[in-house]
Amino acid sequence: ANLTNANFEGSTLKNCNFSNTNLSDANLMFAEISYSNFERANLDRVNFCRQFIQYCNFKGASLRGVDKYRGVYEYNDYTGADFSQSLLVETSFDGSVLNNTKWERANFHNFPSFSLFKHFQSFQNVSFKRAVLEKEHLIYLIKMGVDVSDTLYESDEEFYDSEGNQPSGLIRLHEDADLSGLDLNGCNLSRLDLTNVNFTGTNLRGTIFICTDLKNANFTNADLRDADLKDIELDNANFTNADLRGADLRRAYLDNAIFCNTIMPDGSIRNDNC
């Protein structure tokens, strides 16, 4: 079945069978769902904000880019599910099965480590590549033998493990950071404070920045094609020679932003404040 963009906001769904159903971009905000089957369903970019889900089957489901903000997702089976690019803030997975799940480029901002990680029976085949973590997450994952060398973390201080070493390839996110020339395509950098950050020449194609503070950021020569820039602070940002084709700038604050030889979302060239 194809239920793309379906609106289930505030609904009560019990004993429903959505297996193999395309529910991409659906709205499930405030819904209460229990004892339902979502095995192998496409749930990409679904809005799960402030939701209550229990005793459901999500085996093999695709949950890429979902917004799980302040929700309760307890006693569900997520074996083999793909959570890549998802936003997970103040979310509970108590009692759930999370084996063989994928969390690449997901955002764990303000996510207590034990509320998620304690439910892994095994970290085998679990990937956190380019995920946004916090220091307590790194400590726990290293203890469990997980490779964190290609992850991002938000902190005002450098991270060192218990032996005083810094894992190679870690990228620290903070105000005034130099992230120039990096490959951050598709990462979920939502709800972060990245003011004054240098993104010169950075690959940000498809990157998600919803509600991120990017005032005074430098995007000179950056690839921002298909980036999600909704509802963000971009005052005084520099987009000289940046490529914004297909980017979503709805409700973005762009006061005094510099557009110089900038390719806009519609393909036009803009020159303001050059």
What attributes does this structure have?
2 helices, 4-stranded parallel beta sheet, 274 residues, 3-stranded parallel beta sheet, single chain, globular, mainly beta
Describe the structure.
- The chain is mainly beta.
- 5% of the residues lie in helices and 13% in strands.
- The chain has 2 helices and 11 strands.
- The protein has helices spanning 114-117, 135-143; strands spanning 12-14, 32-34, 52-54, 67-69, 72-74, 87-89, 132-133, 152-154, 171-173, 259-263, 269-272.
- The strands form 4 sheets. It has a 4-stranded parallel β-sheet with strand order 1-2-3-5, with no helix packed on it. The chain has a 3-stranded parallel β-sheet with strand order 7-8-9. A two-stranded parallel sheet has the order 4-6.
- The longest helix is centred in the middle third of the chain and has 9 residues, at 135-143.
- It is globular and about 60 Å long.
- The model has no long low-confidence stretch (mean pLDDT 90).
- Quick one: how many beta strands? 11
**Structural class designation:** mainly beta
Strand content: 5-15%
Please state the overall shape, judged from the principal axes of the Cα atoms.
globular
Ranges where pLDDT stays below 50 over 5 or more residues in a row are: none
- Rounded Rg: 19 Å
Determine the mean pLDDT: 90
Secondary-structure element pattern, one letter each: EEEEEEHEHEEEE
